[in-house]
Amino acid sequence: MAIDAARSAGRLLLSQLVGARRIDYKTSPTNLVTEMDRRAEALILDALARAFPDDAVLAEESGPRAGTSGRRWLVDPLDGTTNYAHGVPVFGVSIALETAGRAVLGVIYDPSLDELYVAERGGGAWLGDQRLAVSRTETLNESLLTTGFPYDIRTNDDNNLREYAVFSRRARAVRRIGSAVIDLAWVAAGRYDAYWELTLGPRDVAGGGLLVEEAGGRVTGIHGEPLDLDRPTLIASNGRIHDAILATLKEIRSA
Known about the structure:
8-stranded mixed beta sheet; 5-stranded mixed beta sheet; 7 helices; globular
């Protein structure tokens, strides 16, 4: 069900990528929502309601829906809305299932590349029929990193700009593509060596975090604590450079 819903939502988004877009603002000019976010979410929520009516849901646009089963679906129908609103084909659909505070299923679909990522806890991480494995990069100096910035970057001093500057000097390079779920999928696929971000939402990290873990990587908060899906900060890495990233963040944030 999750695979079918993610594919259907992604195809809908891709079919409407080019053309005029109605844009609304959630909290600021940097926090967008389009009519396509809502249409893709409605498609996914309808599939969930029909298949699992007793499950709780936390969706990006419509918020929480209570359930009685003890399971919760976390849905981000369009991660990378700013890209999408400008016609940039870098965005993804994420659907994850959580029980007892842990993600047990993650599905991420990149419609622009027609790449479907799937992970089940204990069952590995997959891109189509290819089993994924994180990179083998051993040092921060050799690494390709990715990150993102909070929506309130204009008013919040804790906005990741200091961290970005330091890592840009210590790593091979740092990318910022504007979609957390694609960032995490690419860490799982070994394209990036690590991803860090100071502020994210549960829907951003649930599926992608599981992908990284099941691909052999390591996922923690920015202080090394276990990932808290309800209040996530994030480092997701190949494991080999994780401690170096933790030490660098500690150095920056204690300065």
